[in-house]
Specification:
Chain lengths: 264, 264
Amino acid sequence: MLTISQLAAYTGVTVRAVRHYHRIGLLAEPARDRSGYRIYGADAVVRLIRIRTLADAGVPLARVQGLLDAGEEEFRDGVREIDKELRAEARRLRNTRTRLARLAAGDHLALPQDVVAYLDRLRGLGVDERYIEMERDAWIMIAGQVPDRIDAVIAEKHRELDDPAMVEFYLLVSEALDWSPDDPRIARIADILEELMMRALESGALQDDGLDQAFVDLMDSTMLESSPVAERLLAILEERGWRGWTRVERAPSAKSGGARSGNG
Amino acid sequence: MLTISQLAAYTGVTVRAVRHYHRIGLLAEPARDRSGYRIYGADAVVRLIRIRTLADAGVPLARVQGLLDAGEEEFRDGVREIDKELRAEARRLRNTRTRLARLAAGDHLALPQDVVAYLDRLRGLGVDERYIEMERDAWIMIAGQVPDRIDAVIAEKHRELDDPAMVEFYLLVSEALDWSPDDPRIARIADILEELMMRALESGALQDDGLDQAFVDLMDSTMLESSPVAERLLAILEERGWRGWTRVERAPSAKSGGARSGNG
DNA sequence: ATGGAGGGTTGACCCAGGGTCAAGGTCAAG
DNA sequence: CTTGACCTTGACCCTGGGTCAACCCTCCAT
């Protein structure tokens, strides 16, 4: 006959686990000796091995109880179902590994390789690292919002960067981080942006970015709060009849309505 | 700016989870509006997406914190390690699936196919179902104790069953379950057993069964308590100078010492 | 101004599957 | 007789939140 620790050793579980199984009624309480110690026989060993076999397969203890006390067919059905769950778990695991690999390759976290390449291109152009971080965070949000469309969006951004005016715009915005909000060069940025937007309007690009308005508002307010210069720039644009930043639109009062471009 | 439920909706987590992250310090508490509501910016969204990306990979939240606050290399190392763990998890999962398959094919639980075949063979010989259940439980224990050697042991058992004397022995033992402990036929069982053991001794089989003594004792005490007949049989054998059941030995006082056979 | 719906806030308890500690009884050996 | 190893029960702790309760805040319609 066995003490609890011997039983535990035989079956490869902890003493605590055995007592836990007693408490939840999974393993019957055995007889006690005159000093109150539990004394186990082979039946307990067998039951415990069965319990562990199922529990190691990830079956919750409550279900283990049901299975062990069930008949042959019910048991077989249960095992089939458990195996199906294990297969699903294996699929999930493969999936996770893929995501994790992409994550390790990305710009610190959770970005597709294309986006990382785009950020590197900005970096290569001499854009300020602080601005690149803002861009990166924005892309993380976009990736979270519309993961399926991000490839198309980033491809469009790459094309935009082929335009020298766009490059100049990025460099100016990046430099502007340290300007005073009164700096007259801010107007120059607004000039370039207006020209870029007019051109985008003509070409008909960016008709639908797939982002919802609340999301766009959030990005805009983040931009607005990033620096006094940004605030000033947006104010100038608003005076000229534009509205927004992430998704720029002609303000309703202006002549040509609904024109949209973007600075995601 | 976002309320907590908007933040949760953006990042695909529950409101409760967000608050949980605040409590464990994984996500910084944001500013509150004048009525005490939490107000979030894009920074929280980004942080939360990063958290979920790692957490979905099975990283414990405590470790997520460490990773997110770490530098590039440390982060990359961490991800590598996590991937290693995921691979190990996948291995474990395959292993479990194998065990589960064997379990479903086995005699209700956790027995290799060979053992099931052996039990079926006993059944075919007309051995009492109660005895077969005892055998099955014993095999479950053996499978738990020496899983790597069970194939060899069961093969030996199959060979033993080719001996008509062994078959007779099994049938008698099976019948004996209902006898009175005074039944004279019990001596007949002892006779057969003695002969079998002498033969096993000569052939030199079963020199080392790989079971430890405590385990053998447990099996013996189970046998002893199974019925008064078993008790009587063991007493007779003891009178004749044998000891044990699972691993039968010549008692020290007897002429030829150390002979061992078995009735696993 | 008032009532109700639908947000938000905190706090407390609950789950698996035990780990860990505490306070005390028991047992075998020296 | 003491010591150390074992046993007993009970209580609190962990992760990653779910669920419920009680109450506050805001907004909208009346």
